[in-house]
Amino acid sequence: xxxxxxxxxxxxxxxxxxxxxxxxxxxxxxxxxxxxxxxxxxxxxxxxxxxxxxxxxxxxxxxxxxxxxxxxxxxxxxxxxxxxxxxxxxxxxxxxxxxxxxxxxxxxxxxxxxxxxxxxxxxxxxxxxxxxxxxxxxxxxxxxxxxxxxxxxxxxxxxxxxxxxxxxxxxxxxxxxxxxxxxxxxxxxxxxxxxxxxxxxxxxxxxxxxxxxxxxxxxxxxxxxxxxxxxxxxxxxxxxxxxxxxxxxxxxxxxxxxxxxxxxxxxxxxxxxxxxxxxxxxxxxxxxxxxxxxxxxxxxxxxxxxxxxxxxxxxxxxxxxxxxxxxxxxxxxxxxxxxxxxxxxxxxxxxxxxxxxxxxxxxxxxxxxxxxxxxxxxxxxxxxxxxxxxxxxxxxxxxxxxxxxxxxxxxxxxxxxxxxxxxxxxxxxxxxxxxxxxxxxxxxxxxxxxxxxxxxx
Length: 457
Known about the structure:
Largest sheet: 2 strands, antiparallel
Number of helices: 20
Strand content: under 5%
């Protein structure tokens, strides 16, 4: 006869290898807090509805609190043969409280129990991730303030395109993170639906009170369909999708930082604390952290694809395949929390080489668009102005001169519309000023966004 808590129908115990294969305790034990929180609310509800006695409910709640204390003190033994966090906690509870503990699972299945735990866990992690996003956004604002006025080459196709303020460039990542924050708010909304009470798939014959449990656990909604409640993993898919997009942004930033701190660019230098050296080449200072973030991005993408593949052909309602939702989810949570935290440190410790940035916008033709727009303002059609400017650039390349090096006479060879003010128009300060990149106003607006974000947590 099987000794498992579910083993009444079985004559044999589960093979040890099968136990190892199907056990999830090695990774789902991190949800112990959520499992105890959910079971506590369930026990209180059972007593409120007269399904178990108040005395049994009290014993269960006290027993669960003792288990929580043991786990957090590192004094609890998790057993693989008990499969998962739910059975490990229930076994410890029944050992301690006897019949009271054995009554806890009344009107509940592991299907709706694990769904509840995961909803609670994702909900909590979303808030922690959003706090880290806010911290990184604040770091970007601080850096934008610190480096205000520094002119930097903006790129398209990785070719110098037009001068911009370095602060303006940094605040582009603030905007990306703001969208990430809002996406995670959507994830929270979909995770904020309570599945407990759905049972295995068809609810329960007991007169349970789902609303009471939802209030105890601060859920804003309850699943309207019991089969959907136990099989829904959309909120996990959304979490992994939001995490993947967040990692895209961090990976893009990583790529830029890696380029900027190379000898070829020499725009920034990372703090020694965020780099490593070479075991062979003494001169090396390697940007390992942004490289790792860039590399871990593929890992997060993989977890999203794996989850999509897992659920794409599952019939209703619950299937054991859904146990595969957690390892990728947990690893993604760890990865993005690490990446956000470490990126705040990288940006805060980054040294800026303003002289090299300035040289890059002076020794180039990235002010050519301003020449074309200058001519348009003189009444020349844009396409004609574009062609004239292109010829000017070609002339400059042939004569090894930049546009600010040309004389007025040289300009007039290409168009009589040029006047003495052309050189002042092409200075980097004029170029960025005329582009209406109001960094100060952008910083004020970004600071207001952070305040709003914080108020939602």
